[in-house]
Write a structure and sequence with these properties.
210 residues; alpha/beta; Rossmann fold; 2 domains; globular
């Protein structure tokens, strides 16, 4: 395995360091804001900023270590920047996670501790499957999503691109969610969601359109 460069030095970065170490990766360093140069995050140094991505293309793989709640724009921007520079992404699976051999994960996706991805599930690019999340058989999770801690995506669900599913939420079997939806923590999605917006409650209802 090539060493990893993590992009983003906040709280999510600390969690990803632990996932990467558990998966046997060597972390070469972290890219963050210029004013953070030389700072230590856990045992690893901030060695540059976004302008330094080309230095590591070919010799390392990248992971976006910026988290997101509600808005994936920064993660998408950084992902596209790496791709424009010709960089390659790792796909990280924590040592305590389970991913079926019959499932599919996109580049740049991270499966965090105790997450579970069952048979014939498909997960897109640059996705966060956070701690104790569960993606059941035949479900599809689109690109640039964050499936947060303890989320239950039941069988044959479809989650669109750029969605945030908050901690402890449950998606009933077979429901679909359109692109750009935010589901607040603890919600229960019983029916398909076809309108972009923020949803919450049990059953989850539209609170903020768009």
């Amino acid at each position: 395995m090539k060493p990893l460069i993590l992009i983003g030095g906040g709280g999510h970065c600390k969690s990803l360091i632990d996932v990467a170490e558990s998966a046997g990766y060597r972390i070469a360093g972290i890219l963050d804001r210029p004013e953070e140069l030389g700072k230590k995050i856990l045992n690893y140094e901030v060695i540059g900023n976004d302008d330094d991505i080309p230095k590591y293309v070919g010799s390392a793989e990248f992971i976006i270590s910026v988290g997101y709640i509600r808005n994936p724009d920064l993660r998408i921007k950084l992902y596209e920047l790496v791709k424009q520079q010709g960089g390659q992404f790792a796909t990280l699976i924590a040592s305590t996670a389970y991913v079926s051999q019959y499932a599919s994960l996109g580049e740049g996706t991270v499966v965090m501790h105790h997450a579970f991805v069952n048979a014939e599930a498909t997960v897109g690019k640059n996705v966060i499957l956070n701690t104790f999340s569960n993606i059941e058989h035949g479900s599809i999770v689109g690109d640039q999503c964050h499936i947060s801690t303890g989320v239950m995506v039941n069988g044959d669900c479809k989650v669109g691109n750029n969605c945030f599913i908050g901690s402890g939420s449950v998606l009933y079997n077979g429901v679909s969610i359109t692109d750009g939806v935010v589901v607040s923590a603890g919600s229960v999605v019983r029916r398909p969601i076809s309108i972009k917006g923020v949803y919450s409650g049990n059953p989850a209802g539209l609170k903020i359109r768009g």
